Amino acid sequence: MSVGAPTVRASRLPDSDRLFGVFTVGATGLLLVTFVLIPLWAILKNSFVTPEGIGLDNFARYFADARFITVVGNTFEVGISVTLTTLVLAYGFAYAIQRTCMPFKGVLRIIALLPVFSPSLVQALGLQFLLGRNGFVNRTFGTEIDIYGFWGIFISDAVYAFPHAFLILSTALAVADARLYESAETLGAGPWRIFRTVTLPGTRYGIASAAFVVFTIVITDFGNPVVIGGNYSVLAVEIYNQVSGQANFAMGAVIGVLLLLPAALAVTGEKWIARRQFASLTSQSVPLVPRPNPARDIAWFAYSVLVALAILSLVAIVIYASFVRLWPYNLSFSLRHYEFDVQNGIQPLWTSISVAIVTALLAIVFVTGAAYANHAFPMRASRILYFLAILPAAVPGMVLGLGYILAFNTPGQPVYLIYDTILIIAVCNVYHYHAQGFLLATTNIKQISSTFDEASATLGATKLRTVWRVTLPMIWPTVLAVGVFFFMRAMVTLSAVIFLITPSTQLAAVSVLYLDDRGALNQAAAFAVCIMATVVAFLVLTQLALRLAGIRGVNLVR
Amino acid sequence: MPLGVSMFLSLRGVTRRFGSVLAVDHVDLDLSEGEFVCFLGPSGCGKTTLLRLVAGLEILDEGEILLEETDLSGLPARKRNFGVVFQSYSLFPNLTVARNIAYGLECRKWAKAKIEARVGEMLDLVHLGQHAEKHPHELSGGMQQRVALARALAPEPSVLLLDEPLSALDAKVRESLRGEISELQRRLGITTIMVTHDQDEAMEMADRIVAMNRGRIEQVGSAEELYWEPATRFVGEFIGRINVLSASELRAGFDGPPGETALAIRPEHVVLSEDGAHSGTVRKVAFLGNTMRLGVEAGGQEIEIEVHGRRRRMNVGDTVTFDLPADRVRRLAVSSR
């Protein structure tokens, strides 16, 4: 082998890898500052700025109004009660799925995830059909249940948050060390004692994590409370009333800050818990496999079917109502609500699909790019970058949307160029759900052994070549999953984008809200069904394409 | 410069810290061209970090690494032209065997025809010609590591670096691959550094062994030198087995200040005899075929004695007498510094 003296002298000239690193980290940082930090800053600024100068006057005015204090109380009342209820229900459901041998687990699991595929106002819409003034129950039994208010929000948000709690608890219950259970059993512990001393402590981090996630979802939810809240107002709806109803941006900003604080605290709590979560299992653990136990399995099956029916009924009744002539007076089959002979017709659905596709494409580049930049180029700025990347998890959609208005709706601003286009909506979606996508991609990039990078480098490859030839071919299923996640979110989201739409860029989820507001419930239902159908069809097609390409085991629903 | 005076690869005061921990502590080492050197030591001794510093995968805190008088410290791994083989093979799973081997050549923008010829040559070198179009996961661990070797050697690197290349493999495969790597290294005459924690591997393969402990070099020498003349207590205990004499009764007759140096003797050098100078009680007996290992309590410490060939049967509780031949007792430094 020829071993000549190296022609290159050691140099400290700018190296192409360094340039690439500085570029990706810099670009990611710039985007996050522009689309997360600046809108947040705008909210803070507007909440403290008064005609008389900077101060707490806006907050003082807010708390001077007794009604607003009630709104804060309402938000926490709903947040805490729904969190507790959902935790208990979802824990039981996840337990039945992971720890028993009951039948039809696959179907039950899919039903539990259904609320993820629809905008958050669909649960409230279904509840209206079921328990509203002219709802199924009141008309059938002659009762006079009034669902508008606390109970309406309570039920619809419990269903809306259910899949999120279920997924977290299901993961927590999926991993267990059989040796612990065998030890407990040989020591003579009964099932209830085993549950209290082994199962529950083993899943405590999952429970805490799910609690924080559900609490955040519920207090920041806009769709369900606006539809079924009646006079029972919560913070997210109040922002909308102040901004869209009265054009009172300062008050909107104040409420935004009030909503931001508990959400940020909950997310901080969740991240703190999550870091402690996965240490309990070692490589020597023996996975726990549930053994059949007919009595127990039947009991849990009955419970799960009951929960699944409750979730399913809210979706099913929406679908049903979309196909009848005039709910609830004329229940004959009709397709006339699918003619969409209202203002923009079916156009909002196409706009939503365009926005969702653009969102997915932007997310694939920028969110996986952010995860890569943060992982591949550890530098002093990395911690800040990581913080910025997951900061959006703590920012309620209504707050982010209002921040976009306050920050970007000024001519002469660079971002103003895309204002009033679908691009700003897509960008808002990308940064609204940035944290989830970023963590999904980061987890996967981290799982790839760093020795591939090192092997590539020692063979003479630049980082750019390594990304193209080695990293991307290995993580593309994750990149795809990130795209699918953002497509789904963009199709169903309502909160942030409601401030950014224009008559020409109206979205399907917003149409459902407007139609419901006008009392055109059947048409609202039809539109909602179209959204759900699009999301499910997209998932099925992607999964099918993967199958045809011979790829299995890619989990697209997270 | 006159041939033979300058070293091929030189490490001068090489230091790497992780926080407050000195992973590699001012290491000096010279390698001549074509030499096969092993870094040997327990896990956490800094041997892998030192190799990664040479490869350019870690950044030096202090010191310099010279390749034929050229300082490499500012040069990133991809520009050093060193071939590296990792413990975990690290073959790119999405590329075929042939494409894996071609990877480094493509990075160097070789002509297509030249790449193809070189890949064929490398495949023949590691006897995997018929597997060129397979993907890594279709090959056994041993075959994958041979591909990794071919991939590292293909771009004609100036130094070959092997990071525990055999420790992920079964014992049988390990044996045969040891021979194959040594043979390849000699045939190509490529300067090679291998990291291992397995003393047998180091003794069988290396021209010189660098025994490392806690970030420092304890001793550098051939396998024979390290076994027969260990410089430090660490080397004596890490390579083979050794008794450190702590009982004053056993130390009697060997002068020297205690504490600064340790007196030690290998188990096979302790001589059992009817009228030995020391006596003790047998506490352990292990029959290992052609040898027998005794644990004998004498003067308040346990001495290990290895007896070869057939002897009368020993039982726990027996009293034995033995000698510690003065020319076999070694004086070991407590540490290298």
From TrEMBL, chain A:
Coiled coil: none
InterPro entries: MetI-like, MetI-like_sf
GO process terms (BP): transmembrane transport
Transmembrane annotation, as ranges: 19-44, 78-98, 110-131, 151-176, 205-227, 247-267, 300-323, 349-372, 384-407, 413-431, 475-501, 521-542
Domain spans labelled ABC transmembrane type-1: 72-266, 349-542
Entry annotated with the keyword Ligase: no
Keyword annotations from UniProtKB, A to Z: Membrane, Transmembrane, Transmembrane helix, Transport
Location within or outside the cell: Cell membrane
Gene3D superfamilies (alphabetical): MetI-like
Family (UniProt): Belongs to the binding-protein-dependent transport system permease family.
Protein name: ABC transporter permease subunit
Taxonomic source organism: Stappia sediminis
